[in-house]
Amino acid sequence: MTSRLRANDLLPIGELARRTGLSVSAIRFYEDKRLVEPIRTSGNQRRFLRSDIRRLSFILIAQRLGMALGEIDRELRKLPQGRTPTAGDWHAISLSIRGALDRRIAELERMREKLDGCIGCGCLSLSHCQLYNKDDHLAAEGPGPRKVLS
Amino acid sequence: MTSRLRANDLLPIGELARRTGLSVSAIRFYEDKRLVEPIRTSGNQRRFLRSDIRRLSFILIAQRLGMALGEIDRELRKLPQGRTPTAGDWHAISLSIRGALDRRIAELERMREKLDGCIGCGCLSLSHCQLYNKDDHLAAEGPGPRKVLS
DNA sequence: CTGCAACCTCAAGTTAGATTGAGGTCAAGT
DNA sequence: ACTTGACCTCAATCTAACTTGAGGTTGCAG
Question: What residues of chain A lie within 8 A of the CB of B54, using their CB?
Fold first, then answer.
């Protein structure tokens, strides 16, 4: 409870885990995927910037919105290199995921309409049912039968 | 092009694959998971009922709605044993997945509202942001950090 | 009756997103 | 100096949803 862990304001991995709710192993995994890039102490221990808390929070939020780590990475790369992101930087990224969210909702709503048509006719038949339409491939989420739906 | 493959109206696996757009291996995989239960010829080849086309179509549709095979299995088990499902049977199941779809859309809409709050404040901070709220664990879809979000 | 496509089984590989474990090091308190 | 907890790496394991491949059989057309 004593040592204030100031030391240039860098956080060890356990601290970051505590503050984000992520597990230590998950954070290391994200480093592997280059979603965070901590510096190292002379003793080879990771040290994170305070702004990485927000970075990891963003990852958690984006995942809940259904984004894959790859997409999240792409968003995060829009952040400025070299300087700590400002509220404005995060704001821009938030707007971008708001767009993704809108599209996902719209997709599901289209599915719902089609399903309603199907409930009406009771069909569920590949040859007639609108629900099975390879062209609007909404299957961006979840594994699914890869060959067929991707 | 000659042999009519009537023979009691049973379909070999390749036919079923052709008609559903699934791969042969995927259908075998689904049999493994007991999502379809074909009978066998004396030579140990699978033979499917015509109604299995619809059954597999349902699987495809439900997957696009974001359902996992396990859930889909649970739905399919509501179908009558022993007799070929009627349009009414499928209708009931469609209603049930319509409910699931509604819930998913509602969840995403709640996320959107929260995100809007966040865009307003530009925070994305775990300690203040509503978006990070462990209690409404919407993370029913996609992998995500299991320990944290499930 | 032969050829060949379509079928069979079973084991291993794939991707995403992590977790778990073994074996070892670092650093802070006493 | 010692102990202990936090940290390190690296390899293996897990789930979902399949695919791929090896090696072998079936069944229908000619």
Answer: 124-125
Instruction: Identify residue A90 by its one-letter amino acid code.
Output: W
Tell me how far apart the alpha carbons of residues B142 and B44 are, in angstroms, rounded to a whole number. Answer: 37
- Which two structure tokens, joined as six digits, stand for B75? 């739905």
Question: Does B122 touch chain A if contact means CB atoms closer than 8 Å?
Answer: yes
Q: What is the pTM of this model?
A: 0.77
- Round to whole Å and give the CA distance between A51 and A123: 53
B23 close contact with A: CB closer than 8 A: yes
Q: Which nucleotides of D are covered by protein (CB under 7 A)?
A: 6-9, 15-20, 25-30
The model's pLDDT over A20-79, given as tens digits with 9 standing for 90+, comes to 999 999 999 999 999 999 999 999 999 999 999 989 989 998 888 888 999 999 999 999
B79 touches chain A (CB under 8 A): no
